[in-house]
Amino acid sequence: MTDPIVLLQILWTGTVTSLSLVLLTIAFSLTQKVTGLWNFAQAGFMGLSFYAMYWVLNHLQLPLAVALAAGFVAAAGIGYLTEVFGLDVLRARNSGNLTFFIFTFILAEFIIYWLALLFGTEPQTLFKSIFSPVHIVGGIAISDWDLQAVSIAAVMVAALWLYLGWTKQGQCIIAVSDNAKLAELYGISAERAYRIVAIISGLFICAGMYLVGSRGGVTPNSPFELVLTATIATLLGGMGRVFTAAASAIIIAILQSFSVLFISARWQALLLYIFLFVTIVLFPRGIRFARRKIIPAEPAPPAVAVAADATPEV
Amino acid sequence: MEYILTMGVLIAIFIILASSYNLVIGYGGLASVAHPIFYALGAYGASLLSIHTGMPAPISVVFGGLVAMIASVLLALSALRVSGDYLLIVSLGFQLGILQVIKNFEFTGGAGGLSSIPSTITGPLRTPIYLAISAAGAALTVWLIYRIVHGPYGRAITAMRDEELAFSALGRNATSLKVVVFAIGCGIAGMAGGLYAFYFQYISPEQYEILQSASLLTMVVLGGMGTTWGPVLGAVLLIALPQLITFLNLPPSVMAPLQGIIFTSLVLLFLFWRPAGLVGNAQKRSPLAAGTQDLGGSA
């Protein structure tokens, strides 16, 4: 029987490790929700954001704030440019969906090859040392990095939730994600919504890659695996449900962490692909939790139920 | 001379591979990136059968094709059961997952690769004979695919690709047709893998990474997706072009990404400036035109 403290430690480590995936999944899932696009180019954006931060920190020797700004500008900038000069052009041409897939996939590859050419294929970390001071709380080791990851993820997720639910611009984005054509009839620009989402995704990608790169090594190819995890989480959470997808990312990471108890280290990487198959085969529309039904005292008119069901999911 | 003949063998193998990929993505409209992994399954299947049982090369190559075909059916059934969207995601996961398996097993040679694949043809005429066999294989593949897509079955495939809803409304089973097209394309790729393994006598997992997916996609898009001769031209150009860079004597750490940059730049250029490719007719409906798959976007 494994010591409960060990189990708690695995749970804690799995949870905090998942937070970078949470941020990257939100970027991927939000883009999928609003544009309807599986934007695999985000693998390239992730790589670009990481190496921008790495270059500013390690080559230019500038402060972390400048590196973070560079990481954000790189991810949001390339995302915005891809929208304007790539996806918008393809939309205007009424291109087939296959074209969108080829474009995003090849763009990711194109960026990754440039990164491999410029920075090599050896793993790099943002900081020379990835050691972080550790505090023991109730027998569980909690590092400063863990606290930093929790704070960053909590603030960003809360900010996005408030933005989407409580600002006019956020509600416009939700409207576009529900029905872009209908939103345009009401004077909401879908194009503008797509571009804003590209910038928001850039912010989440930058934060996610900061956490990934400050904890372990990154190679130009690593983001493909991250995008795949984000894809699995998006599928598992159910397409169009951004925060459920984020929760799924946590579940995936925790399951991966606990698997060390049963599976040898060399087979760990395979677990992700098994998740993918299980998700596609068993939960193709995501895991749907039954909602608690409110039974009215008197029979309610059908329109109320319809309106309640129509509340957009975020 | 040996070098040029070897290039010829490689070009012939890639014509088989690109044409079979074109059948899947170009004619079938099935967005899959995993074609290199079926090529790998064929290569490993044929090599392992030959190494462990001493089976003759032709039987081993056919066996490799069967391994790839069975794997492709399993993949397609699980993904297409729900929607065409999932094939792309599952194919990406399948490719990376199988590569992990190959890298971790000892009997596949692990990450270091599989050597000691028996040479079935020896002597000074080995390369010319292999060239003849590969060229015949390439010609047969192009002819077979031409026959498939220009016959009644081919019309059903393109109808399914262009108007799946209407196709299904006519009582045809789009999913089973997709699975068949996918299996044929992947089976041919597996046989190409077997041919490669017996000629080069060494295979390693890194030959089947995502780079190979990008290369194949480049061959098909550059030549002309959904055309008979497009992938042939694409394969010839994309195997021959990088050879020009090899004369620059650049280190491998520069060569590999540089080749990748050239491949991906070409795809991006063609996607925007000539989506029909070099061979394709810009006036004709291309697989890259609207509504060919339900994947991708609101777009």
**Count of DSSP helices of chain A?**
12
Broad structural category of chain A:
mainly alpha
Oligomer: heterodimer
Radius of gyration of chain B: 19 Å
Large-scale geometry of chain B: globular
pLDDT < 50 stretches of chain A: 300-312
Strand order of the largest sheet of chain A: 1-2
User: What is the average of the pLDDT values of chain A?
Assistant: 87
User: Would you identify the CATH architecture of chain A?
Assistant: Orthogonal Bundle
Secondary structure layout:
The complex is a heterodimer of chains A (314) and B (299).
Chain A: H1 4-35, H2 42-58, H3 64-92, H4 97-119, E1 134-137, E2 140-143, H5 144-166, H6 168-178, H7 180-185, H8 190-215, H9 222-237, H10 242-258, H11 268-282, H12 302-309
Antiparallel strand pairs in A: 1-2
Chain B: H1 2-27, H2 35-53, H3 57-80, H4 85-104, H5 126-150, H6 152-162, H7 164-169, H8 174-200, H9 210-223, H10 230-246, H11 252-273
Structure, explained:
The complex is a heterodimer of chains A (314) and B (299). Chain A is mainly α and 314 residues long. Chain A has one domain (4-309): ABC transporter involved in vitamin B12 uptake, BtuC (Orthogonal Bundle). Helices cover 71% and strands 3% of the residues of chain A. In chain A, strands 1-2 form a two-stranded antiparallel ribbon. In chain A, helix 1 runs antiparallel to helix 8 (190-215). The longest helix of chain A is centred in the first third of the chain and has 32 residues, at 4-35. Chain A starts with a helix and ends in a 5-residue tail after the last helix. Chain B has helices spanning 2-27, 35-53, 57-80, 85-104, 126-150, 152-162, 164-169, 174-200, 210-223, 230-246, 252-273. Chain B is globular and about 55 Å long. In chain B, 71% of the residues lie in helices and 0% in strands. Chain B is an all-alpha fold and 299 residues long. The longest helix of chain B is centred in the middle third of the chain and has 27 residues, at 174-200. The chains are: A mainly alpha (314), B mainly alpha (299). At the A-B interface, helix 3, helix 4, helix 9 and helix 11 of A face helix 4, helix 9 and helix 11 of B.
